[in-house]
Structure formats: C-alpha cells, structure tokens
Amino acid sequence: MLHCYARVLARYPYLIVGAVLVVTITCLGVSIFKSEGFHFERPRAGFETRGTELSEKLVAYNNLLRISENSLSLTPFPYQHKTKFHHKIRHRNKNRHRKNRRKNRKRKKKKNKRKKQRRLRNTLGVKKVALGSRHGNRLRKTAAENYFCDDLDEKYARVVFKSLDGSSLFTLKNIQAMCRLESKVVRSTSLFTELCIDDSRECRSWSLGNYIGLLSNKTSCTDLEENDIALALQTLSHCGQFYRNYSLGAYCEECVRVPAACKLHNAVYHILHYLTDAHFTTITPQDQPVLAYSVSFLPFVQSSATVNLFEYIEGQDLQEGNVELVAANFGIKDVLFKQYIWLDSKWLLLTAASIFLAIWLYSASFFITLMTFLAIFWSLEIAYFLYVFVMGISFFPYMNMVTVMIMVGIGADDTFIYCKVWNLAKTERSNVTLEKIVAETLKHAATSMLVSSLTTAAAFLANVISDITAIRCFSIYVGTSVLCNFLLMMTWMPAMIVIYEKSCNCLPCCSSDKQGPGSVLCRVPRNIHKSISNCSRIFFEKILPCLVIKFRYFWLVAFGILGLASIAIVFVYPGIKLPTKEKFQYFSSSHLLEVYDLHLWNHFWFEKTEIDQVPLMPITVVWGVLAEDTGDPLNPSDRGTLRFDNSFHMETTKAQAWLMDFCSRFRQQPFYQHVPGYEIANCFLENYRNYMAAPCVDDYQKTQGCCNVSSFPYSPETFTRCLGLYIPDLMNTPYIGSYYSNYQLPGPRFKDGQIRAFLVEFSSAVPFTNAYEKLRSFYSQVNMWIRDQLSQAPEEIRGGWFVSYLQFFDLQNSILHGLPLALGLSVAVAATVIFFTTLNFFLSLYAVVTVAFTILTTVAALLLLGWELNILESVVITVAIGMSIDFTLHYGVAYRLSSDLDTELRVVCSISRMGSAIAMASLTTFFAGALMLPATVLVYRQFGLFLMILITTSWLYATFFFQSLLRVLGPSGTFGQFYWPSWSCCANSTRSKDKGGQSVSESTLSSSTVSNQLRSGFENHELERLTKWSAQVPPYSGHSNHARQPIVPKQSSKKAAYYKEPCSKCASQSHKKSMSTRDNQLKNHFLLVKQESNSIPANNCSSGEESEVWIRRVDT
C-alpha cells in the first residue's frame, strides 16, 4: 500500500495537489459565505456545566422560572378569564377593604404620633426639629450636592491608589499627589468631558481629598493644608466607632446618639465605607492604622462608552510622587475583552513569523516553508468547516483561538521530521528512484507523525467527556485540526516536495552559481543553514550522545528524584487547588481591571457588604417538572424546553398529607435555619391550611366551602376550587401581594386551570460560600435526605428534586472529577498507540514512565507558580499528555528501527538521527510560548507559559531520562518484540520498474540540493542502520557526483574483510575529515555491523586513547 501511494506521489504530484486545493478552497468558500463568523461578546459563555445531574436540575429550574412569565400562571385561571374573576373578587372584598382602610388610618395616626414624640426626645437639642427635620435634611443634602454633581453611588467608575513605599496615604503629600495624578491621567483629555454626568460645570470626583476639602470649606484638594488633614483624621478617629457599630449610616441626619460632626455631609460615612480600605476603618483616637488603599469615584457611569477613556488612562504614566494608580473598575471587561482578543493576535502573528524563519533556516527552502504554513492554514480551515457544517456546532468559544499556536508548533515539528528523513533518504544508495525516496521517507516519517498526531489528537479529544461546554468545543476543534494537519502532511507536503525537487533546476535557489537579486533570498538562509548544520552536527553526533551515555546513571537518579518530588507536590503539598473565586478572569493579573477584581475589591466595605448580605443557601424542592436539559449541550444559548411530569398530582389527599408532614420533618433537620417573620416562601400548604380554617368573611367564601374547614386533607375538588380564592386574596394582601406576584417565588404554577408545578423553599443553616468542601457536604447531606423522603412519598409526587446556589460547585466538581477521567483516557490511548507503533512492551513501558514524569513535573511547576485547577488549567494538564509524548515517541521509533545494533549504538543512532529535528521543534515551540507572554488576554499568556514549561521538561526527560533508561534497561535485538504479519501490495511491480524513468538524475534531484543540504558523513549511513542488513547496499558518499552517477560495487566472491576506523568514545560512527579521498571512497563499501566473532577486538573506548570501530566490508 505504501509503495502504491509513493508511486502516485512521485508520478502525479500535481494530481494530489489539485485534489487538496479543490477540497480546501471549497471548505474555505463555504466557511466564509455561510458561517456566522467569530463572536466573543459573551466571553463567559460556555464556561458552565451541561449534562450533569446538578446542571440538568438547574437548567430545568431556570426554564421553569423563565417560562412561568409566558406560559404558566400564578393563578389557576386562564388569562382570558382573569378580568371576570377579578371583577367578582372586587365585589366580594369591597366591604372588607373599606373596613381595613379605616383600621389602617387609625393605626397610622398612632404610629406617626409615637414617631414624632420619639424624634423630639432624641434630637440632642436641635431646635429646628419642631419645624420639620426634612427641611434640615434638604439643606444639608443641597450643600453636598453643590460641591459634587450627584450623590455617591456604586454605579460610577472608580480607580484605586496606593503608595509606592507602603506609607499611609492619609498625609497631605500623598493626598495632593492623588489629586494631581487623577487630573493628569483622567481629566487631561476631552474624553472625560464627554462622559461627565454634568457637562455644564466641572464635576469633582468623590475622593478622599475632595471630601476633606468639603469638610474644610476648600474648593480644591490641592488647596488643603496640614491642619485640614489633621482635623479630618481627628474626626474619623472619634466617629469610627459609630460606623463600626452600625449607628452611622448613609444619610443619617435623623440618627440618634451620633454626634453632628459625624453626620455632616455624610462625609465620615462615605470616607470609611467607600473611599478607604477596610483595615483603616478600625481607626480610633489611640490607634490610627496605615491607609494602604484609597478609592476615587469618577463622575461618569460604568458603561461601554468608557472604553476609549480607559485605554487612554492605560497609556499614561500612572505614578505621581509617592502615589501610584494600581487598579480600576469601569464595568467594561466583557467589551474590552472582545477588542483584546483580536489585538493580541499580533503576538500569534509574531509567533508564526518566528517559526516561519526557523523552518526556513532549517530546510534552506523558502518554498517548503511557505507550503508548510499553507498546510497549517488549510488544516485550521478544514477543521472549522467540519466543526461548523459537518458536526453542526454553532458555538465557537474564544479558547479555540489558541489552536493557532498549537497547530503552528505541531506543523513545524512534522516539517522538521519529514525534511530530516527526506534528506537522509536521498543519500541512500538503494534509493535510485524518486519513488523509492518518497516511499522510504513515508516509511520512517509517517510512523513518527502518525503516532505524534494520534496521541496529541487523543489527548485533546479525551476532553470530549468533560461536562463543561467550552472544554468540549475546544477539544473537538483542536483534535480535528491535528488530524487534518496529519492528512495534509501525508498528501500536500510530500506532493509539494516532489514538485520542488522536480522543478529545482528551474529555480534560482537550486543552483549556487546563480547571481542576481533573487538569489540573495536563497543564499542567505542556505549559508546560515550550513553554519548551523556544522555546529549542530558536532553537538548531536558527538557531544550529546556522549553526555547521555557517559552520565546515564546520574540522569536516571536526578530526573527520577525530580519526578518523585513532583508527585509529592501534586498530590501532597501544596496539591491541586480548586478555584475559590467565582469572578471570571479575562486578562493578565497585572491588568488594572483584574487587579481590582482579583485582589482589591474585598478591601473596601462597600464591596464586602454586598457579599456579607447574601442570604443563606436556599433549599428549593420542585415537583411537576422533569429534571432534564433538552437543549444542545454544545450551545450555551440553547436551553431546550420545559418538560412536565404528567404523573404529578398534588391535589390528592395522600399528596396533601405527605407534603404537610414533609414540611414538619424538614424543620427538624440540622441543615434547616429558621428565619423570623412571615415565611410565605416556606411551605405553601401551611398558610393555605390556615386560610381554610379561618372564619368566613363573606357569604361568597362561605358558599364555596373555603372557610371554617378544620378537616385536612381536603378533597381534590375542594382543594382546587379554594385555591382560586386563596391565591387572589394573597396577591391583594398589603406588603405580601407584591412579593407573591413575583414569578421567582415558590408556590404552585398553573396551566389551563391545573396545577402543573409546585415549589417549596426553605433557608438552610449554611451561609453562602464558594468553598468546595463546604458545598459538597451541604449538597450531599441535603440531597441524600430529600431522596430518602421522596422514596417514601406517594406515587403522584415521588418525582421531586432539589436545587440551590450550586452552579459554581457543579463547575468545581466537574473539573475535579473530569480531569482524572480525561487523563486516564489520554494515557490509555497514548500507551496503546505507542505499543502498536513500536510493538515492543519494554519500549512502551519506558515511554509511558517518561511521559508520566514529564506531566507530573510540568503540573508541579505550574502549581508552584500559583495556578489553580480552573477550566483552562484542566485543559492544559490534559493537553500535556499529547504534547509531551512527541519527543519520546520520535526517539523510541528511531531506537526501534535500529534493531540490529546493541543498546548503546541504538541510543547513539536515535539521538544522532532525530536529535537535531527534535531540538529544533522544541526550540521553536518554546519561543512560540515565550512570544505569547506579553499578551493581555489571560488564555494566551497562560498557554504560552505552559508551552515553555512543558517543552522544556519534555525535551529534558526524553533526551536524558528516556535515553539513559534505554541505555541501561533498553531491549536489545528482538527481546520483547512483536511483529505484524507482512503483506505486499505492489512489491512485484515496484521491483520491475526500479530501472524506469524515475531514476534519480539531474532531472529529479539536483546535485546542489544534495550537496548543500547533506554534508554529514554520519547522516549518509543513518537510514541504512534503520533497515534490514540483508540488503547490504552501500550508501552514498555525500558528494554531488554520486547523485548523478551512482557507484555500483562489483560482484566478488571474496570473504568479508575488516577495516579499522578511529572513533571518539561516544560518537564512533562519525567520519574524520582528515581521512584521505581514497579512504573515503573505500569506506563506502563497508557497513557498521555488530561484532560477530571473538577474534574481533572489542569496540570499547577507554579514556586517554582512541578506540577502534571494526567495520566489515561486504562483497556483493
């Protein structure tokens, strides 16, 4: 099969190229004109779970709340009968409301009288209270409004300052520096004037300096003096206790027992609550803490219109004196992200440009380099076509943009391997036809590329089992791109290289004697390539093999200890940490917006209060709705439709009794928290029962049998009929009615006059938190109890389930439990691919151990850098399997193919043959990651850092640990080796046409191409070592003449003779430049073989002397 395909490539390369172009151009056209393109308006879209038990409940619950406003009703009456029903209700309640209004008026008069007397007693001698305290409030509020353009509110944009030397900001020097810095970076542009809330005058910011100026009657904070600062600090010291005991609040003019100085202009409250950090609020006359951070609220609202102003602020010098602007909150992270995701693409382009240059220098061919990048583009484009139009996935998360970086690295790696093997194949004496060169190249390069592509794609596709939408979409797209890249590397690139070889004589780059401006484009990379090749040849053929073999025990111990230490770091301390912050990070940690959200937001009481006032974790039990997510799990916008449980009937007597008992039993559980007040949201039936037992208020209620009913449960007819009276009464009740009219409230939901859903909600004893362990314990305990209770419920209400604020917990749980599954699947696929590629058990075992240590070391390094196991990090860890196995596999395949040598020579052979290509691939990928570090978008930065660490550890472990392991314990000969059954597709036809018109001549392979790219004598023998020794065909000498006129050895019946060649200790196979021309030509008739006789001296290089390598001359 391989020979058949090689023949097609060698004879009809334009046919292959044309077929690829038809497919790629078609996919490109359809993608451009039919797809919706990329949209990143909602960066958080897809970063949620779908398909889990909890996510299905949450989706169904949210659908219930959403659909309730459209198709479900809070009352049992259809929409068309509401008017008539409410008309009857109004007549029935007319007299009752009249009586209630009289009672309410009397009650309000008494209440106002008591309130007025209490106010007169506690005004601390303020005489104007008798005239009305509201007038005084208005005067004080007007005074503050004249100084500022509006009341201080959290809706306004804000910036945060800190001192450079850690000193307190509450000094005259630092306060004035904050004022100057704000004027310089914020107010110095017309953009500020356009955004200001009042363009008729200059609006002051709500800052520490301006509030001190308000208290000191100064028009500007730049006019402040030392005594103003001291007076303000003294006021805060005396008033801080009233703020801490909640006596002092916003607009506290009527607050009792609070000194007037503490209430003046609300300045003290605003300074302590909004403008200074939480630690400073502990200020007392005896203890005045350091003010570390101070907020300045700017007079424009947070909105997308502030993007240009924020970008202007970012470009300014953010330091003034001893003060620095360190954070900001403009409410524009989502809007800004869409811009940065495209602006940061310049780093992707720079990465691609650097790798383009590296491939050009390595291959010394601009044409091959250009075709390589075209293949990478085709792979991305075909994968997008398959992703959108074949798989039907409409959601394209921004994480998919990272695929460009991954594919550039993989494409460069495959090109290095293919070019290396192609150049070696051209120097083989047996490859006298272009077809054989193509076949020999595919034989060796295809194996490495196939294994590398399969393991990398498997590592990505293993994440398809994840419950998180963004991870699944990312893994599908990247895995598809890797497989498309492999197909193009097996079709597009071989065909292009054949075309290049056939047309080489017509191109300026193929001849070194061409002159002209165009030849510079060829000579410069060729000369650089020649210089680098000479240096790399010495390193990879002599120095590196010597370092590996001579210090093999040191490498094994050192990297073994490093791997064991990594195990301790990953699983013991500090261990893998789950995210504890629900805030989503878009940009790098040093970005102004992220500094505020990640580090500084909880330093101020106005932000902390919002979190501290979050209620307890609710426990909501739902009946009548199936806990199913019928939407597309790969589309976060598709939530599906609500499906009702047709077996649900709560109006039966058994259901009523069980639900009432359920509420009673629930209140006895340790996770229940009683909340004082009228608990309308708790158990609907309890209030309904009280309503039915109440005395009748009119004849209509009495005739309906909905009052003075003490027996419970009720008949289904009575239960349903009286709900039609109870719910409207409840909705018309003062204070309660508006609350119950909210569709978020638990209770029954009606459709077509029937109860289709029912919700009960209780408060738990667990405060709201994002801590995984607390939430896990809470969910497990409550879910187990409710399941046990529902299992004993009547059949008609047995399908209930409970939900709470567990979205973030479900995300944490999916990451924690999905990662081991993805890792296990990736390792299993990688081990399987390795074994079926090498067919050697021990080689596969050593490769898996090496990859495991590589991954553990990479993860340990990331943990030491402070990474948490979030969505991106979990993807990165899984991807590490596929990307860390490449180098080990390349070495392992080379070791496997050189099976006729002993372990030491096989190690030397694998390093010498694949070392330069692997090193080049690792170097380009490392720099690709390094060039992404300046990016603003977090995903680019983190993936760049991950690539740098992974590639470094992967190369070190593959080169030093894996090769040392093979040298010490590696299989030799056929030990532990399995074999595939052999068959031949086109063997006879191939042999019969070896002498045909496809012979290597000036028309197919130019002499300059061979002579310029392949000058290493060692490389001339590499592929010969990787083939069966039964061929016994001498290799090329590497000279250009041998490309034109192959030297065929004469037939002889002489026995084998032996020839001695000097060698170094670890690179004994290298040619010596000092050899004479005669010796060089003579050497072409010898092959390095294993020592077969005791009469042959041992091939050992002792220190201090040059050893000898015995080479047998083969007479054919």
From TrEMBL:
Biological processes per GO annotation: smoothened signaling pathway
Record bears the keyword RNA-binding: no
Record keyword Iron present: no
Biased composition (Basic residues): 83-121
Keywords: Glycoprotein, Membrane, Transmembrane, Transmembrane helix
Spans annotated as Disordered: 83-122, 993-1012
Coiled coil: none
Record field: transmembrane: 12-33, 347-378, 384-410, 445-462, 474-493, 553-576, 815-836, 843-865, 871-893, 914-937, 943-962
Sequence ranges assigned to domain SSD in this UniProt record: 391-499, 840-968
Pfam families: Sterol-sensing
Main location: membrane
SUPFAM superfamilies named in the record: Multidrug efflux transporter AcrB transmembrane domain (SSF82866)
Compositionally biased region (Low complexity): 999-1011
Gene3D superfamilies linked: Multidrug efflux transporter AcrB transmembrane domain
GO cellular component: membrane
GO terms assigned for molecular function: transmembrane transporter activity
Membrane topology: Multi-pass membrane protein
Places the protein is found: Membrane
Assigned protein family: Belongs to the dispatched family.
Name of the protein: Protein dispatched homolog 1
Organism for this UniProt entry: Acanthosepion pharaonis
